[in-house]
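Recall that a protein's primary structure is simply its ordered list of amino acids. Everything else, from secondary elements to tertiary packing, is in principle encoded there. The following example makes that idea concrete.
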Amino acid sequence: MLDTAMTDELTGLLNRQGFMFLGQYATRGADRRAEHLSVAYVVFEHFGHINDSFGHEQGDRALVVFSELMNSSFRETDLIARQSVDEFILLFNGSSEEGAFIAMQHLDGKVAAFNQRAENPWTLAFNWGCVEYDVSRHSCLDDVVAEVDQAMHQARTLRTERA
């Protein structure tokens, strides 16, 4: 059981502090074992619209549902954290960037299936970017987080331009 100071009260996911604490441990372990480790940054889209159009209770429900879909999509060894109001960060232990991409595609499928069967006034949507941890480029977990945040924003811009 994790300390309540390390978890998000609404979603039950790790918070930023919990992610950084466990993530630093994971990166050190990946270094020692020469294993892959990837980090994905996720933005839950249209959260403000859900809150404004359907109320904060529905906004909270959408965040909880999205968090549950992430929990059911990934392995117990992966770290999932709520980074801010509508942003999440994931650490895929033992996964290359390609493996993390496949995991994110699995989440995309679960979200699409949820949207098809759910009877909510809103739909779930998200954008994401992913970076593989590389000890030659990243001196610490903060470096990976900064790079993946930038990668997510670039991917989001590309997806928006294509739409």
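The radius of gyration is 16 Å. The mean pLDDT is 93.
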